[in-house]
Design goal:
By secondary structure, the chain is α+β, with helices and mostly antiparallel strands. The chain has helices spanning 28-37, 109-125, 150-164, 170-178, 187-210, 218-231, 235-241, 247-257, 264-288, 302-324; strands spanning 3-11, 16-22, 40-43, 45-46, 51-57, 68-69, 75-79, 84-92, 98-104, 133-140.
């Protein structure tokens, strides 16, 4: 599988992860040496002089070409004398240039900042220092054509199910920190995802039930599926707009693969896989949804309702009396 030009940094404790784009053209020597180290399991620490920067020890010995730039938040650079990968997450207090080989993806900067603050708290501010692990690995982009047969599509969908089954997807983490939503808030997006994912899963289950009717032909199933899921309103595209970036690609691949089916049994296999992915993503949203806000919308007991009614009646009476005088 090809490398996407990005690497992922992940700290297991609070389970935070973010991505960085590699500057292969600007700094090929360091990029090549870093890739040779991956997957990298190391420790992570925090600087004590140069500002808001974290470091990760490596075994790289670099004496070749360097790409020196001014320090700035989001820069990923290699400190050759100390053999460390460094990441700037905020303000810096040193003016020297750094050997930059990567740039944190803009939408992931809030996650890097939170991670940096966590590392500072755990390794610097407390008398008891905790040992924190950092994992760095490549981001592999599978070759997944939108046009493929139903078996290939089902395999890709199932691989994605395996990827998100036990580990919270990065997309959902980003929705909480810096995802779409009017007014720089994530509640409305989570609210729509909770509702739409549940309904899409239910619709796909209904399609599977319809497929069991003897008088429903395969071609009819294909037409119904396209209309339900992408005809008047493309649900996969909408869910992607809400922040689940892979849904549109997988959904379009599923829809395209429908035309390669030859039996209704194959339809059940393909649609069942897509339904499972949608349902698993719904359960992730359900897991993180702020249900605790419900305490602000408690039901009123009968006695409370009666009391409120009496108070309202009394207020109305007083208003009437006052208006007459």
């Amino acid at each position: 599988m090809p490398h996407s030009g990005e690497i992922r940094f992940q700290i297991p404790g609070p389970d935070l992860s973010f991505r960085a784009k590699l500057l292969t053209d600007e700094n090929p020597d360091v990029v090549q040496q870093v890739l040779a180290q991956l997957p990298l399991q190391s420790l992570v620490g925090h600087v004590v002089v140069s500002g808001q920067v974290i470091w990760i020890p490596t075994r790289i010995v670099h004496i070749g070409h360097s790409h020196m730039v001014q320090r700035h938040p989001g820069a990923v650079y290699f400190d050759a004398p100390r053999q460390t990968i460094c990441l700037i997450y905020g303000r810096t207090t040193e003016s020297g240039e750094v050997n930059k080989f990567g740039e944190v993806i803009g939408s992931d900067l809030p996650i890097l900042q939170k991670l940096g603050e966590f590392v500072y708290e755990q390794t610097i501010t407390h008398p008891h220092r905790n040992i924190l692990e950092m994992n760095v690995d490549r981001i592999i982009t599978p070759v997944t054509k939108l046009e493929c047969n139903w078996r290939e599509a089902k395999e890709v969908i199932e691989e994605e199910i395996d990827r998100v089954w036990l580990k919270e997807p990065e997309d959902i983490q980003k929705i909480r920190w810096s995802g779409p939503g009017t007014g720089d808030q994530s509640f409305s997006v989570l609210d729509h995802l909770e509702a739409y994912l549940m309904l899409i899963g239910a619709d796909m289950y209904s399609l599977l039930k319809i497929s069991q009717h003897e008088n429903v032909e395969l071609l009819t199933l294909e037409h119904i599926s396209r209309e339900f899921l992408a005809g008047t309103f493309n649900v996969f595209e909408f869910i992607t707009d809400l922040g689940l970036t892979k849904m549109d690609h997988l959904g379009q691949m599923y829809l395209n693969a429908l035309k390669t089916l030859t039996t209704k049994e194959e339809y059940v296999e393909l649609t069942g896989a897509m339904m499972t992915y949608v349902s698993r993503m719904h359960r992730w949203i359900h897991h993180i949804f702020p249900w605790d806000m419900g305490v602000d919308f408690l039901h009123h007991k009968p006695g409370e309702v009666l009391s409120l009614a009496k108070e309202a009646a009394a207020a109305s009476f007083m208003t009437t009396v006052q208006s007459r005088h």
